[in-house]
């Protein structure tokens, strides 16, 4: 009886977080799948300015991850999630109603701030459930995201016939729904004892095994973000962009269950294979494959396989490497460095696309080479800690510090 109660709480937590993911992802992908077309056609912005606005959202989101990730450990992640969804609801509402550069910058900042709060809150709740629930719970979480990524662009395309303002309004309403759903979580991870935000960040930065993983996995965010940017910037219309987004998401959703079984997501080979797939996808785009539908679908399939492997690989690696009460801090540190690279890379890609075909090819080849470099990097995190790393103090869920020796 005593073991059934925590299990029921874990199931409830997973169910609520998956429902939050469904509403939030529908709102996100419905608007973001068509935002480049809106900024290009409706507002007449140049490619460089579009790339800067989108990269600014990433910069704000992932720069704030550094303190906010640890803050989610110290504060209530449910309240953090509610605030995140409210900020993103306002941000998407602005995105569909403003036309000035200043207004778009405000919308980007709100969206970035909301994202910085949302991901540590949701993933901390999942990381806090029992291990046997965590793998399947995260698989359901990511599959829901991918299914929403298939359906939401179609919803956005239908609403786009009326105007992007309606797409943005629907997105804002879905994020408001996600805020309400967050409040239904009953089980909240216990805050770490004896430390605050600075202590959490410092713990992650001093963890050599984790920091090497953070460096190797840094390009994952750049790869995911630019896939949605380079296709419309390359000249694809709204229909082709929708096909690309839906195929990519469908393939990712199909890959997720396989990744969740047998501990595959924790293997370094999963991160390596995902990077190889997305790298090949960018090389195909560099050869002009995005100019016709068959080639665009092939690229979407490659990115779908890559994304389907990279997302669970990153989540489970952090959950394995981080002390149980410090997941948010570890996620925040890793996402901070990923965001810096995504911002720099996104800005550079936008500038290169303005230079014409030569600049476009250069940007796509550079993205492919970054992915291949990450895949080729040596792995220092294949399994449990050993040697000196395993002897480091680790924190239990209750905040108690224990010494883990080489025998475990």
Describe the structure.
With 408 residues, this protein is mainly alpha-helical. It is built from 16 helices and 2 strands. The chain has helices spanning 4-32, 35-42, 47-74, 77-95, 101-127, 131-160, 164-182, 197-205, 208-217, 219-233, 238-260, 268-286, 293-321, 327-353, 357-376, 387-390; strands at residues 393-395, 401-403. It has a two-stranded antiparallel ribbon. Strand 1 (393-395) and strand 2 (401-403) form a beta hairpin. Helix 10 (219-233) runs parallel beside helix 14 (327-353). The protein is globular and about 55 Å long. It starts with a helix and ends in a 5-residue tail after the last strand. The model is unreliable at 382-408 (pLDDT under 50).
Helix/strand structural class: mainly alpha
Summarize the helix and strand pattern as letters: HHHHHHHHHHHHHHHHEE
The low-confidence runs, each spanning 5 or more residues with pLDDT under 50, are 382-408
Note the overall shape: globular
Q: Tell me, rounded to a whole number, the average pLDDT.
A: 81
Count of helical stretches: 16
Measured between the Cα atoms of the first and last residue, the distance is 30 Å
Structural Rg: 20 Å
Instruction: Estimate what percentage of residues fall within beta strands.
Output: under 5%
| Arrangement of strands in the largest sheet | 1-2
- What does the largest sheet look like? 2 strands, antiparallel
**Counted beta strands:** 2
What percentage of residues falls in helices of 4 or more residues? over 70%
């Amino acid at each position: 009886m005593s073991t059934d109660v925590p299990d029921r709480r874990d199931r409830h937590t997973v169910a609520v977080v998956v429902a939050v993911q469904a509403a939030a992802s529908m709102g996100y992908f419905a608007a973001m799948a068509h935002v480049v077309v809106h900024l290009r056609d409706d507002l007449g912005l140049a490619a460089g300015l579009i790339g800067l606005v989108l990269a600014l959202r990433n910069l704000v989101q992932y720069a704030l991850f550094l303190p906010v990730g640890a803050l989610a450990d110290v504060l209530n992640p449910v309240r953090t999630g509610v605030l995140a969804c409210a900020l993103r609801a306002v941000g998407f509402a602005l995105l569909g109603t403003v036309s000035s550069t200043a207004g778009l910058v405000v919308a980007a900042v709100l969206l970035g701030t909301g994202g910085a709060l949302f991901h540590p809150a949701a993933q901390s709740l999942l990381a806090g459930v029992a291990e046997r629930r965590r793998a399947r719970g995260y698989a359901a979480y990511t599959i829901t995201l991918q299914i929403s990524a298939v359906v939401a662009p179609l919803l956005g395309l239908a609403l786009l016939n009326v105007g992007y303002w309606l797409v943005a309004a629907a997105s804002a309403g879905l994020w408001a729904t996600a805020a309400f759903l967050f409040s239904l979580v009953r089980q909240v991870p216990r805050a770490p004892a004896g430390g605050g935000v600075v202590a959490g960040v410092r713990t992650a930065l001093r963890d050599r095994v984790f920091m090497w993983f953070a460096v190797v996995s840094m390009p994952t965010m750049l790869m995911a973000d630019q896939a949605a940017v380079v296709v419309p910037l390359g000249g694809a219309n709204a229909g082709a962009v929708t096909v690309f987004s839906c195929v990519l998401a469908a393939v990712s959703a199909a890959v997720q269950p396989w990744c969740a079984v047998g501990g595959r997501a924790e293997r370094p080979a999963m991160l390596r294979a995902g990077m190889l797939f997305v790298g090949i996808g960018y090389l195909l785009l560099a050869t002009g494959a995005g100019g016709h539908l068959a080639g665009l679908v092939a690229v979407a399939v490659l990115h779908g396989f890559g994304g389907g492997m990279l997302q669970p690989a990153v989540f489970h690696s952090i959950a394995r490497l981080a002390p149980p009460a410090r997941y948010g801090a570890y996620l925040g540190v890793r996402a901070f460095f990923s965001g810096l690279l995504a911002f720099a890379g996104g800005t550079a890609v936008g500038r290169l696309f303005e230079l014409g075909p030569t600049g476009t090819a250069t940007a796509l080849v550079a993205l492919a080479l970054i992915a291949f470099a990450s895949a080729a990097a040596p792995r220092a995190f294949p399994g449990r800690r050993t040697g000196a790393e395993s002897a480091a103090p680790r924190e239990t869920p209750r905040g108690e510090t224990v010494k883990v020796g080489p025998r475990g």
